[in-house]
Specification:
Elements (H helix, E strand, L loop, with lengths): L4 H11 L3 E8 L2 E11 L5 E5 L4 H6 L3 E8 L9 E11 L5 H11 L8 H7 L3 E14 L7 E5 L6
Length: 156
Amino acid sequence: MVNDPFVSDVRAFLGRHNVLTLAYQDSQGTGACAVWFAVDERLHLHFLSSPATRHGQALAAGAQVAFTVHKDEQDWRSIQGVQGVGLCAMTPAHAIDTAWQVYTSRFPFVARQFPDLQAALSSAALWRIVPTWLRLIDNTKGFGHKEERSFDPDGV
């Protein structure tokens, strides 16, 4: 996977953007939220959120989600983004230290001792999305240019 140009392109794109829109299902229907995220070498996406939120409650037991990250651009010739589907759950205990390092490397201010931020973090959990399908969209390579790939969640 290290020498895979698709994976490298997706990782590079995700590394240039901060906000992921997460779609999920719960007893109330379909929901979506925006979260700040960090991506690791295996394309796992990490974010912080409270388990008390609607999406936190929906994802508490682990669930399939859809997500998108896109360049904030209006010109159709330069639209770029990543769409994906994956499995989302709280980060397992054995992976917390690594995930926290990935997240705080991306957002170093999170690890600093700001009283209001620390209060918010005290009720947050670290979550992980393991992609099972990704699509990279890049209209700079031609209108409607897409590349996509499916992944075994154990192999990503």
